[in-house]
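USER: Please consider what follows.
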Amino acid sequence: MSWLYSHRIVYGVLMRLLYGRHLSARLAAASAEVPAGCHVIDVCSGDGRLYREHLRHKRVRYEALDLSPQLVRWMSERGIDARTFDVRSEALPSADVIVMLSSLYQFQPDAASVVERMVEAARLRVIITEPVRNLSESRNPMLRFVARRMTETRSDASGQVIHRFDRLTFPRLCERFPTLERLDTLPGGREMIAVLGGRAAAPHDGDGVPPGSESLGVRWVDRP
Protein backbone atom coordinates (compact mmCIF):
# COMPACT_ATOMS: atom_id res chain seq x y z
CA MET A 1 0.00 0.00 0.00
CA SER A 2 1.42 3.38 -1.01
CA TRP A 3 2.22 5.82 1.81
CA LEU A 4 -0.08 8.29 0.07
CA TYR A 5 -3.06 6.36 1.40
CA SER A 6 -1.99 7.21 4.95
CA HIS A 7 -2.70 10.93 4.53
CA ARG A 8 -6.38 11.68 3.99
CA ILE A 9 -5.98 15.23 2.65
CA VAL A 10 -3.23 14.19 0.25
CA TYR A 11 -5.29 11.17 -0.77
CA GLY A 12 -8.34 13.32 -1.51
CA VAL A 13 -6.39 15.88 -3.53
CA LEU A 14 -4.62 13.24 -5.58
CA MET A 15 -7.84 11.37 -6.31
CA ARG A 16 -9.25 14.63 -7.63
CA LEU A 17 -6.10 15.14 -9.71
CA LEU A 18 -6.23 11.64 -11.16
CA TYR A 19 -9.94 11.58 -12.00
CA GLY A 20 -10.66 15.28 -12.54
CA ARG A 21 -14.24 16.06 -13.52
CA HIS A 22 -15.01 12.35 -13.83
CA LEU A 23 -14.47 11.59 -10.12
CA SER A 24 -18.08 12.27 -9.19
CA ALA A 25 -19.39 10.48 -12.29
CA ARG A 26 -17.67 7.21 -11.41
CA LEU A 27 -19.03 7.34 -7.87
CA ALA A 28 -22.51 8.16 -9.16
CA ALA A 29 -22.36 5.16 -11.52
CA ALA A 30 -21.58 2.84 -8.62
CA SER A 31 -24.21 4.47 -6.40
CA ALA A 32 -26.88 3.99 -9.05
CA GLU A 33 -26.48 0.22 -8.65
CA VAL A 34 -27.16 0.34 -4.89
CA PRO A 35 -30.80 -0.04 -3.80
CA ALA A 36 -31.98 2.34 -1.09
CA GLY A 37 -32.03 0.96 2.44
CA CYS A 38 -29.77 -2.01 1.78
CA HIS A 39 -26.61 -3.17 3.58
CA VAL A 40 -23.45 -2.10 1.74
CA ILE A 41 -19.86 -3.14 2.37
CA ASP A 42 -17.26 -0.94 0.66
CA VAL A 43 -14.02 -2.92 0.30
CA CYS A 44 -10.87 -0.80 -0.02
CA SER A 45 -13.09 2.18 0.76
CA GLY A 46 -10.41 4.87 0.94
CA ASP A 47 -11.93 7.82 2.80
CA GLY A 48 -15.54 6.70 2.28
CA ARG A 49 -16.31 9.28 -0.39
CA LEU A 50 -18.83 6.95 -2.02
CA TYR A 51 -20.93 7.01 1.13
CA ARG A 52 -20.35 10.64 2.08
CA GLU A 53 -21.28 12.05 -1.31
CA HIS A 54 -23.61 9.48 -2.86
CA LEU A 55 -25.01 6.82 -0.54
CA ARG A 56 -25.82 8.67 2.67
CA HIS A 57 -29.12 10.00 1.31
CA LYS A 58 -30.16 6.45 0.34
CA ARG A 59 -30.21 5.54 4.04
CA VAL A 60 -28.13 2.44 3.51
CA ARG A 61 -26.36 0.55 6.25
CA TYR A 62 -22.78 1.27 5.20
CA GLU A 63 -19.59 -0.44 6.34
CA ALA A 64 -16.18 0.74 5.17
CA LEU A 65 -13.28 -1.74 5.08
CA ASP A 66 -9.80 -0.46 4.38
CA LEU A 67 -6.20 -1.42 5.11
CA SER A 68 -5.18 2.12 6.12
CA PRO A 69 -5.59 2.74 9.88
CA GLN A 70 -5.35 6.48 9.26
CA LEU A 71 -8.25 6.57 6.80
CA VAL A 72 -10.31 4.25 9.00
CA ARG A 73 -9.73 6.50 12.01
CA TRP A 74 -10.67 9.59 9.97
CA MET A 75 -13.96 7.98 8.92
CA SER A 76 -14.74 6.68 12.40
CA GLU A 77 -14.27 10.15 13.86
CA ARG A 78 -16.99 11.34 11.47
CA GLY A 79 -19.51 8.71 12.46
CA ILE A 80 -18.88 6.28 9.59
CA ASP A 81 -18.83 2.57 10.45
CA ALA A 82 -15.27 1.74 9.40
CA ARG A 83 -12.61 -0.80 10.35
CA THR A 84 -9.21 -1.92 9.22
CA PHE A 85 -9.46 -4.97 7.03
CA ASP A 86 -7.08 -7.05 4.90
CA VAL A 87 -8.93 -8.73 2.04
CA ARG A 88 -6.03 -11.12 1.50
CA SER A 89 -6.27 -12.74 4.92
CA GLU A 90 -9.70 -12.00 6.43
CA ALA A 91 -13.10 -13.48 5.65
CA LEU A 92 -15.48 -11.07 3.94
CA PRO A 93 -18.71 -10.48 5.90
CA SER A 94 -21.98 -10.86 4.03
CA ALA A 95 -23.98 -7.88 2.81
CA ASP A 96 -26.65 -7.07 0.24
CA VAL A 97 -24.16 -5.18 -1.92
CA ILE A 98 -20.37 -5.37 -1.92
CA VAL A 99 -18.44 -2.60 -3.66
CA MET A 100 -14.81 -2.33 -4.71
CA LEU A 101 -13.75 0.83 -6.53
CA SER A 102 -10.50 1.05 -8.49
CA SER A 103 -8.68 -1.41 -6.24
CA LEU A 104 -8.85 -4.85 -7.81
CA TYR A 105 -5.44 -4.50 -9.49
CA GLN A 106 -3.86 -4.58 -6.03
CA PHE A 107 -4.76 -8.26 -5.72
CA GLN A 108 -3.12 -9.46 -8.90
CA PRO A 109 -2.39 -12.25 -9.69
CA ASP A 110 -5.20 -13.44 -7.36
CA ALA A 111 -7.87 -10.95 -8.47
CA ALA A 112 -10.23 -13.69 -9.66
CA SER A 113 -10.31 -15.33 -6.23
CA VAL A 114 -11.07 -11.95 -4.62
CA VAL A 115 -13.99 -11.42 -7.01
CA GLU A 116 -15.21 -14.95 -6.26
CA ARG A 117 -15.18 -14.23 -2.53
CA MET A 118 -17.13 -11.01 -3.04
CA VAL A 119 -19.74 -12.80 -5.16
CA GLU A 120 -20.11 -15.50 -2.51
CA ALA A 121 -20.54 -12.87 0.24
CA ALA A 122 -23.04 -10.63 -1.61
CA ARG A 123 -26.76 -11.31 -1.36
CA LEU A 124 -27.78 -9.01 -4.23
CA ARG A 125 -24.80 -7.85 -6.25
CA VAL A 126 -21.13 -6.96 -6.47
CA ILE A 127 -20.08 -3.64 -8.00
CA ILE A 128 -16.52 -3.24 -9.27
CA THR A 129 -14.97 -0.28 -11.02
CA GLU A 130 -11.46 -0.68 -12.37
CA PRO A 131 -9.01 1.45 -14.38
CA VAL A 132 -8.38 0.05 -17.85
CA ARG A 133 -6.48 3.05 -19.21
CA ASN A 134 -3.80 3.73 -16.66
CA LEU A 135 -2.44 7.20 -16.04
CA SER A 136 0.80 5.62 -14.87
CA GLU A 137 1.66 5.60 -18.60
CA SER A 138 0.58 9.21 -19.18
CA ARG A 139 2.76 11.53 -21.26
CA ASN A 140 2.40 14.12 -18.50
CA PRO A 141 5.39 13.45 -16.19
CA MET A 142 3.68 14.86 -13.10
CA LEU A 143 0.52 12.85 -13.64
CA ARG A 144 2.58 9.77 -14.46
CA PHE A 145 4.56 10.09 -11.22
CA VAL A 146 1.46 10.58 -9.05
CA ALA A 147 -0.41 7.70 -10.70
CA ARG A 148 2.49 5.32 -10.29
CA ARG A 149 2.91 6.17 -6.62
CA MET A 150 -0.81 5.84 -5.90
CA THR A 151 -1.16 2.52 -7.70
CA GLU A 152 2.14 1.06 -6.60
CA THR A 153 1.81 -2.56 -5.55
CA ARG A 154 4.23 -5.44 -5.53
CA SER A 155 4.08 -9.18 -5.35
CA ASP A 156 5.13 -10.57 -1.98
CA ALA A 157 6.76 -13.55 -3.64
CA SER A 158 8.81 -11.93 -6.38
CA GLY A 159 8.94 -8.22 -5.58
CA GLN A 160 7.90 -7.49 -9.16
CA VAL A 161 5.42 -4.76 -10.05
CA ILE A 162 2.05 -6.41 -10.66
CA HIS A 163 0.34 -5.94 -14.02
CA ARG A 164 -2.68 -3.67 -14.10
CA PHE A 165 -5.86 -4.35 -16.03
CA ASP A 166 -6.60 -3.03 -19.50
CA ARG A 167 -9.56 -3.04 -21.91
CA LEU A 168 -8.98 -6.69 -22.71
CA THR A 169 -7.95 -8.26 -19.42
CA PHE A 170 -10.62 -6.75 -17.17
CA PRO A 171 -13.58 -7.88 -19.34
CA ARG A 172 -11.90 -11.26 -19.72
CA LEU A 173 -11.78 -11.64 -15.95
CA CYS A 174 -15.39 -10.53 -15.46
CA GLU A 175 -16.70 -12.87 -18.16
CA ARG A 176 -15.41 -15.83 -16.17
CA PHE A 177 -18.32 -15.29 -13.76
CA PRO A 178 -21.75 -16.53 -14.92
CA THR A 179 -23.53 -13.95 -12.72
CA LEU A 180 -22.11 -11.03 -14.74
CA GLU A 181 -24.96 -8.60 -15.46
CA ARG A 182 -23.32 -5.45 -16.71
CA LEU A 183 -19.98 -4.38 -18.14
CA ASP A 184 -19.66 -0.78 -19.29
CA THR A 185 -17.07 1.91 -19.86
CA LEU A 186 -17.46 4.87 -17.50
CA PRO A 187 -17.40 8.55 -18.57
CA GLY A 188 -13.91 9.62 -19.55
CA GLY A 189 -13.01 6.16 -20.82
CA ARG A 190 -10.46 5.49 -18.12
CA GLU A 191 -12.47 2.97 -16.07
CA MET A 192 -14.98 0.20 -16.55
CA ILE A 193 -17.78 -0.88 -14.23
CA ALA A 194 -18.82 -4.50 -13.73
CA VAL A 195 -21.95 -5.63 -11.88
CA LEU A 196 -22.25 -9.26 -10.85
CA GLY A 197 -25.12 -11.01 -9.10
CA GLY A 198 -24.37 -12.26 -5.61
CA ARG A 199 -24.76 -15.84 -4.43
CA ALA A 200 -25.09 -15.49 -0.65
CA ALA A 201 -28.33 -16.61 0.98
CA ALA A 202 -30.69 -13.63 1.16
CA PRO A 203 -33.14 -12.76 3.94
CA HIS A 204 -36.68 -12.43 2.59
CA ASP A 205 -39.37 -9.87 3.23
CA GLY A 206 -43.05 -10.62 3.68
CA ASP A 207 -43.56 -11.17 -0.05
CA GLY A 208 -40.78 -13.74 -0.25
CA VAL A 209 -38.52 -11.45 -2.29
CA PRO A 210 -35.08 -10.33 -1.11
CA PRO A 211 -35.15 -6.51 -0.62
CA GLY A 212 -33.86 -4.76 -3.77
CA SER A 213 -33.79 -7.91 -5.90
CA GLU A 214 -36.69 -6.75 -8.03
CA SER A 215 -34.28 -4.36 -9.75
CA LEU A 216 -31.83 -7.12 -10.66
CA GLY A 217 -31.70 -8.37 -14.20
CA VAL A 218 -29.39 -9.06 -17.08
CA ARG A 219 -28.58 -5.88 -18.94
CA TRP A 220 -26.79 -5.06 -22.15
CA VAL A 221 -23.08 -5.72 -21.86
CA ASP A 222 -21.24 -2.91 -23.60
CA ARG A 223 -17.86 -3.64 -25.10
CA PRO A 224 -15.23 -0.86 -25.23
Residues 99 and 127 are 5 Å apart (CA to CA).
